[in-house]
C-alpha cells in the first residue's frame, strides 16, 4: 500500500497558472482539504501499473 501526502497549498499554487484547465484538479483539492478539516484520513491502494509491451518491427 502506498502513502500519499499532498501539500494542498503548494498543489493549489502550482495549478493556478493552468487557469480553467485545472478546474477539476482544484475542485478535488478543495474536497480533500474539506475532508481533512473534519478529521477524515484517506489511504490509497493501487495496483502496479502494467509495463507497455514492446512491438517488434518487421525486418
Describe the structure.
Helix content is 39%, strand content 0%. It is mainly alpha-helical and 59 residues long. It has one domain. It is flat, with a radius of gyration of 18 Å.
Summarize the structure.
The protein is mainly alpha-helical and 59 residues long. It is 39% helix and 0% strand.
Query: How would you state the average pLDDT, rounded?
Result: 81
List low-pLDDT spans. Answer: none
Structural class: mainly alpha
Series of H and E elements = HH
Domain module tally:
1
Classify the beta-strand content into a percent band: under 5%
CA radius of gyration is 18 Å
Tell me, briefly, the overall form. flat
**Strands, total number:** 0
Summarize the biggest pleated sheet. Answer: none
Oligomer: single chain
Which percent bin holds the helix content?
25-40%
Count every helix, treating DSSP H or I runs of 4 or more residues as helices. Answer: 2
Spatial gap, N to C terminus: 43 Å
List the helices and strands and how they pair.
Blueprint: H1 8-15, H2 23-37
Helix pairs in contact: 1-2
Which key features would you list for this structure?
59 residues; mainly alpha; 0% strand
